[in-house]
Amino acid sequence: MSDLAPELTAAYEHCRRIHAVHGRTFYLATLLLPRHRRPDVWALYAFARVADELVDAPTSPDPATLLAWRDQAMVTMRSASRPDPGQPVLNATWHTIRAVGLEPDLLQEFLDSMVMDLTISRYATWEDLRGYMRGSAAVIGELMAPLLGARGPDALARAAALGEAFQLTNFIRDIGEDHGRGRIYLPQADLARFGVDEAMLARAVHTGVPSQQVRSLVAFEVRRGLDLYVIAKPGLRMVDSRSKPCLELAFTLYRRILHRVIDNDFNVFERRLVVPPWQRMATAGHVAARASSAGLSESIGFSRRSTPRRRS
């Protein structure tokens, strides 16, 4: 970023800090990217995070603020003029959109899905949920693909599937957290299929002990998630060689969350299931080592010395 104007460098650094705090697993994966590619990923993550925070405010969502930010953001993204430096996330995203040649309409789809969260808290079928996920997850994959050197219809389809896989993983892991916000992302048809009503789901959330019906529901969604990873996996070969370590690490760590759910007998209610920090770092080290042996060590800028220490 040394060739950027100081205010733009500061804007990307602002986005980096947002990513480092709120998206630790994906942020770790970005350390396997060449240094010049990381800021664009940080900008897109921060853009999405700002909208997500407006939807999931600590007290209650503020529709007026979200709608105003959506409108301001899209006017900015479509403007030929550089944004106000006082809006670092929009400033960095505006620059990334132009530097990489991304389509602003994809950001519009994303923000429109965030607005859906203000009024829609249930989805009748899997296809209904996928309609929401198209904007909230699939388009993020499509935005990320060119940053990693992947282009063309098949690559974009794999990237969209990976975005859906990541989001469904989050939906499964965060059933209790979403329930606390009044939302159930698992399709109502799936609940009915396994004899789960909302009272039964609420008991699992409040007691940390799911019934067998609820475990079966979670197991079904885990299988669906793993199927999405299978669809997305060929996309790992469609990015350029310098981006493969980053994508491989993100793919491996997010999919491993589902295996944590399996290992915990499909109970996602007693505690938040995550990949332990030591395991994240060990996996990152293995991926980085393979990249180094393939001659990518100088481009990815990741080493054991750059790895944060494990917290006690």
Question: What are the salient characteristics of this protein?
Answer:
single chain; 312 residues; mainly alpha; Farnesyl Diphosphate Synthase; 2 domains; 15 helices; 0% strand; globular; disordered C terminus
What's a concise summary of this model?
The protein is mostly helical.
Classify the beta-strand content into a percent band.
under 5%
Global shape: globular
Q: Mean of residue pLDDT?
A: 90
The first-to-last residue Cα distance is 34 Å
Write up this protein.
The chain has 312 residues and is mainly alpha-helical. It has 2 domains: 1-119, Farnesyl Diphosphate Synthase; 121-275, Orthogonal Bundle (Farnesyl Diphosphate Synthase), CATH 1.10.600. It is built from 15 helices and no strands. It has helices at 6-22, 24-30, 38-55, 63-78, 88-100, 104-116, 126-147, 153-173, 175-180, 188-193, 198-207, 212-232, 244-263, 277-293, 297-300.
Write the layout of secondary structure elements.
Elements: H1 6-22, H2 24-30, H3 38-55, H4 63-78, H5 88-100, H6 104-116, H7 126-147, H8 153-173, H9 175-180, H10 188-193, H11 198-207, H12 212-232, H13 244-263, H14 277-293, H15 297-300
Helix pairs in contact: 1-2, 1-3, 1-5, 2-13, 3-5, 3-6, 4-5, 4-6, 6-7, 7-8, 8-12, 8-13, 12-13, 13-14
